[in-house]
Design brief:
Chain B: This is NIP7 nucleolar pre-rRNA processing protein. The complex is a heterodimer of chains A (308) and B (195). Chain A is mostly helical and 308 residues long. Chain A has nine helices and four strands; from the N terminus they run H-E-E-H-H-E-E-H-H-H-H-H-H. Chain B folds into two domains: 87 residues, Nuclear Transport Factor 2, Chain: A; 77 residues, Archaeosine Trna-guanine Transglycosylase, Chain: A, domain 4 (Roll), CATH 2.30.130.10. In chain B, strands 6, 7, 8, 9, 10, 11 and 12 form a seven-stranded mixed beta sheet that branches. Chain B has a five-stranded antiparallel beta sheet with strand order 1-2-3-4-5. Classes of the chains: A mainly alpha (308), B alpha+beta (195). Chains A and B meet through helix 7, helix 8 and helix 9 of A and strand 1, helix 1, helix 2, helix 3 and helix 6 of B.
């Protein structure tokens, strides 16, 4: 009927909308602070204690949570959305709340062997400079180009020597030799300067006598060598001479004691034996000390007569 | 094959003179023909002229051995005497040690000659003198692994030693890679020098 007038309809529509909005609008004294990156909302509003006590606590808390969640969701929807696989997704911004560490901080690692050593010696890290000898760079460049040429089978004219800034005597000599032998007949007919000596054999090969050379010459050379070796050995073997002398002395002493001991009998004989042993000991030590050859003087001990 | 250089000859002669002293000149200068030392593959061979001339017809790679091998030069140019040189050293040896028959076999198997096994010894043998060991039948002996011996105690000291078991001739360890195993102990009869 006309009772459903337009005003009523409009009013009803308005009411409906207000109701709708009511569900999504929340009135708060203080606005909430949002950290959408972490999906967090901070509510700093005071809680009315009287109201908290009057209502059932469960209901109060639930309504509070609902309100805050609504505000959070409203805030989330304010951010740009996109559609990913038939799902509407909101791109979250960076989180603003600093969170504490998840795991404990790393312990300082113990120094390595080198680090310890460097600390002990006071070695500091030195950075190498980029400076390099010019000569080497030039030579390196030459070789590099030569390698390229070789790889690509390009013919290059042979270059004898590389340019060197500071040439030593040997370098100059080599340059001269190279220049001299760079003729059609390989330097065979090249005149030498008045005081220039004939070049030594600059090749690396050793030179040996021919297998069947002059036999008598060879024999003579070897005999001469033997003569030289003999001459180097001392003619008088001092050790031998000394020992011979000592032996003579011992023998005389022994002979003298024997004559004496002939009256007393065995006792004298024993003495002479000991005397000989003592003399031998002395001789052994003297000799071993003198001779330089052979095993070390560990053998000296063997010279002592074993006394039982 | 090539002749020895002066340095090499010197080293070799020094080694040889330890055993034969100045008798080396009898090896170098022989009345019955020209003999010479030649080096081939680091080994020194003692050959007569005739054999040498024949040997030059064999290529280097195919030539194994010529004449008598005296020894070889090691990588650091030290000279090692080989047992094949015994034939030439034994007749010229300056200092000799004779071993009793009981000790003979022991020596051939590589043990030192003890004083108890000593039959005779040349007079005036110095300490650490190079000696050649003989059996009582005047046969020069060489043991494996080491062919040549030296005397750690001189002749005179050994006279005063009471204990019979003192080591008298220590075998100079002279390892050669081609030395024969113990089953092939060498027992050379004395040969005349004119081979």
């Amino acid at each position: 009927m006309a009772a459903c007038s337009i005003e009523d309809l409009l009013a009803k529509a308005e009411q409906d909308e207000a109701e709708k909005l009511k569900s999504i609008t929340v009135q708060k004294e203080l606005d909430l602070e949002f950290d959408i990156g972490n999906l967090v909302a901070y509510d700093k509003n005071r809680i009315d204690i009287r109201q908290f006590r009057e209502q059932k606590k469960e209901d109060f808390l639930r309504s509070l949570a609902r309100d805050n969640t609504q505000l959070l969701v409203n805030e989330i929807w304010k951010h740009p959305t996109e559609r990913v696989e038939e799902v509407i997704v909101v791109k979250l911004p960076e989180p603003t709340t600093p969170l504490p560490r998840e795991k404990p901080p790393p312990k300082p690692r113990p120094p390595t062997k080198w680090e310890e050593f460097a600390k002990l010696k006071g070695i500091q890290k030195k950075k190498k400079t980029n400076l390099v000898w010019d000569d080497k760079v030039a030579k390196n460049e030459l070789h590099r180009l030569r390698n390229i040429a070789r790889a690509q089978k390009i013919k290059v004219p042979g270059v004898g020597l590389t340019p060197i800034a500071q040439q030593s005597k040997s370098d100059l000599a080599r340059a001269v030799n190279v220049a001299k032998s760079s003729t059609a007949s390989a330097g065979k007919f090249q005149d030498r300067l008045p005081k220039e000596k004939a070049p030594r054999n600059t090749g690396k090969k050793r030179k040996f006598q021919p297998v069947i050379g002059n036999f008598s010459n060879e024999k003579q050379r070897q005999l001469d060598l033997l003569k030289v070796m003999d001459s180097k050995k001392p003619r008088l073997d001092v050790n031998k001479a000394v020992n011979k002398q000592m032996r003579e002395v011992d023998r005389e002493e022994a002979a003298a004691k024997f004559k004496k001991g002939g009256k007393k009998g065995r006792k004298g004989g024993n003495f002479s034996g000991k005397g000989k042993g003592g003399g031998g000991k002395g001789k052994g030590k003297g000799r071993a000390g003198g001779k330089g050859q052979g095993p070390p003087s560990g053998k000296k001990g063997a010279g002592k007569p074993g006394k039982r | 094959m090539r002749p020895l250089t002066d340095d090499e000859t010197k080293t070799m002669f020094e080694k040889l003179s330890k055993y034969i002293g100045e008798n080396i000149k009898h090896l170098v200068d022989r009345p019955d023909g020209t003999y010479c030392f030649r080096l081939h593959n680091d080994r020194v061979y003692y050959i007569s002229e005739t054999i040498l001339k024949l040997a030059t017809n064999i290529s280097r790679g195919k030539l194994v051995s010529v004449g008598t091998c005296f020894g070889k030069f090691t990588k650091t140019i030290k000279f090692r005497l080989h047992i094949t040189a015994l034939d030439f050293l034994a007749p010229y040896a300056k200092f000799k040690v004779w071993v009793k028959p009981g000790q003979e076999q022991s020596f051939l198997y590589g043990n030192h000659v003890l004083k108890s096994g000593l039959g005779r010894i040349t007079e005036n043998t110095n300490q650490y003198q190079g000696v050649v060991v003989y059996s009582m039948a005047d046969v020069p002996l060489v043991s494996w692994p080491s062919p040549f011996t030296y005397c750690p105690l001189s002749n005179q000291i050994s006279q005063h030693i009471a204990l019979p078991l003192h080591i008298l001739s220590i075998i100079q360890s002279n390892q050669s890679t081609y030395s024969p195993p113990p089953s092939h102990t060498v027992h050379y009869p004395i040969k005349s020098v004119n081979i």
